[in-house]
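REQUEST ID: PR-0412
SUBMITTED BY: lab tech R.K.
PRIORITY: routine
TASK: structure prediction, single protein chain
INPUT:
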Amino acid sequence: MEKARIEISEERKVLFARLKEKYNPEGSKLRKYQLHLVETLKEFDSFCRKHEIVYYLAYGTLLGAVRHKGFIPWDDDADIWMDRENYSKLEMLTQGEYHRLSKNVYMSYGIRPMLWSSPYADIDIFVLDSSPTNKTLVRVKNLMVKILYALVKCRGRIDNHSFGKFKPYFLLTPIAVFASTESWKNKYKKSAMLFTKKGDMIDWLQSYTNVPSYIDYLFPNDENLWTPIEAEFDGEKFLTPKGYDQILRIIYGDYMQVPDESHIHVHGIVENIKI
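STATUS: complete
OUTPUT:
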């Protein structure tokens, strides 16, 4: 398989070493968490290659592979992309007991699919579906996804008697009660799959996401762009899109530019995890 040709200058290596020492030095809580995520990704990668399933590192994880050859020093999560066909195959193969991929790794099929491993790794999976090129149809689809997502959330809160702080989607309560949570989830999934067989654009954030506004990002549905290649990530080899440069520029602009440290955002996921 083709490998990504990514070179890091000596100057950048010095910069990245300084950032690593500040944010995720060896032995730190964050670094231990990152290494556990890598082990989870390795088992996922092994399962996918065995069953000829294509996936890609996504978002900050892809950015880390290209810019740092591993985790962005302050990053504390991992993301994966899969197109609808490959995701459906994964879903079918993991419908057994506990949705198990391996001894330690499982799939979680909630409103957002996740890769999970004990005791503390959660890796989000984002499904790529086709989207229309017509801007009006894009807006219609976006609106449908957002409303149905809100109905899933609202119905789930009703079922769990967990109302908490008022949320705008509670205004949909009179509608939400007319179907079960699972029914709304299915409708949500179908809305995300609209135009899957039509159009020449891939809509990169689709079904089972908790941030439906991101649906506005579109990537060209070019076979060369999405051909899987291998890229180094923390000493391991994982799959990335061949057109990673174009994809990362759509999301981040000048992605090779390391942000000013005053603008670095840390999720804080590891703060509540015992490692």
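NOTES: Helices lie at 10-23, 29-50, 59-67, 84-93, 135-160, 173-176, 181-192, 244-252.
REVIEWED BY: pending
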